[in-house]
Write a structure and sequence with these properties.
2 copies of one chain form a homodimer.
Chain A (H helix, E strand, L loop, with lengths): L12 H19 L4 E2 L1 H8 L3 H9 L5 E2 L3 E3 H12 L7 E4 L3 H8 L2 H4 L4 E5 L9 E2 L2 E2 L6 H8 L3 E4 L3 H14 L3 E4 L12 E4 L2 H16 L6
Parallel strand pairs in A: 4-5, 4-8, 8-9, 9-10
Antiparallel strand pairs in A: 1-3, 2-3, 6-7
Helix pairs in contact in A: 1-2, 1-4, 2-3, 7-8
Chain A binds a DNA duplex through α1, α3 and β2.
DNA sequence: CACTGTGAATACCTTCACAGCA
DNA sequence: TGCTGTGAAGGTATTCACAGTG
């Protein structure tokens, strides 16, 4: 029985995907010194229905007070724990093209507790460059980053041709979570989790929904 | 009866979200001069099960040949039509920070037929800058872009504080599809579609899945 | 009394199992 | 025979309706 099992009840995936949104809304409330919030208010702030919010929170436990609402600090802390954000999750970004450089310079990571500990590239001509104040390192540094700095999450920002190789390098070094921005399907062994975010895919989905309503100027 | 209704049968959202992946795989096959493909092969290339692929394709119509498979060109063309990618979808990027600049320089948009026709920013100090060869324009240019160039999709790459305002400007100018990279919930009138992609959210989801398996060094 | 927490109902998505066809 | 297309079954996610409680 591992220590982690205490925290980890069975939370549905769809629910997990919404928890970060709740946490963001709670953080904003806390910044405005709001101590208590109803499911209705929090749901609105997070862009979901209050029923769904309550159902989601019920998977974490019973942290609300009937007739009153939720304590903002308390709930934020419970969600933080559920998501596993009490430990830190050092991140490395692989691929220093446009997107990689932008991600390297992006503040949002650090703000939410994800420390970018290394920037890497497979191209020796790029290795050694300075990006956002850091020196770009070669892929062979990966194993040391895992062992010495606890590197846990790899962000792939390479062109799609190099994505699988970058992923293999990360996995071989011991990284078990990958956020992939390349438009490619990555294959990984069991136990490694990949999430792919593809900009073109998103635009294509928007195009589909857009056509529904965009065309009817031709109604004659 | 609008012209668009011909194309648009009722395709489930989950299915629509996978079509771009199939299209990408088909495009790769076509580049390698492969003319025909089975559901099994295509499914593998797209990272889904063959049953799911066939079910998804069945929503578009019957374009396979039993005992043989699918004609690559034909199927690509059917998906292209279903997604509404036969018309073009001019894109504007709002917010010329790090992410906006990276998106402006990103090739992937054009490759898949999304023409970036304008870069904008609400900050007068940024307006006039050159980014990726284009001059950054002020927000007040939006209505003209919609009318004169058919601007259809707005990409929001502003800080989260400015996202709702950017979105309102886009919507007011007549844009009905928004891809939002700011970590914020955007409210829009009916008929406008927003998709939000948030990097921190993705990392937090990875953290959740990672903790499941990361901790057990403490097994005693 | 207001608001949370939850079983039951519904809607949606995926997988199974196999009928149908080149 | 081999592979597609699909009704039916099984799961998962969301919504409803209301019981429970500070």
């Amino acid at each position: 029985m591992s220590a982690a099992a205490t925290t980890r009840r069975d939370i549905p995936d769809a629910s997990v995907a919404r928890l970060p949104g709740y946490l963001r809304a709670l953080t904003a409330l806390a910044r405005n010194d709001i101590a208590s919030v109803s499911s209705e208010e929090l749901a609105t702030a997070a862009g979901v229905s209050s029923t769904m919010l309550r159902k989601d929170l019920s998977h974490l436990g019973s942290y609300g007070v009937r007739g009153v609402g939720y304590d903002v600090e308390r709930l934020a802390s419970e969600i933080t724990t559920a998501l596993g954000l009490t430990q830190d999750w050092p991140v490395a970004i692989v691929g220093m093209g446009n997107l990689g450089r932008a991600l390297a310079a992006y503040r949002g990571f650090a703000e939410r507790g994800f420390r970018v500990i290394a920037l890497l590239d497979g191209d020796p001509r790029v290795v050694g460059d300075r990006v956002a104040g850091d020196v770009v390192r070669p892929m062979r540094d990966l194993p040391d980053l895992v062992v010495d700095h606890g590197l846990a999450i790899g962000v792939i920002a390479t062109p799609s041709a190099g994505a699988q190789e970058a992923c293999d390098d990360l996995v071989e070094a011991g990284v078990r979570s990958v956020l992939n921005f390349a438009p490619a399907v990555l294959s990984v062994p069991d136990g490694v989790v990949v999430r792919t975010v593809d900009l073109s895919t998103e635009l294509q989905i928007l195009a589909f929904h857009g056509q529904r309503v965009a065309a009817p100027e031709v109604v004659a």
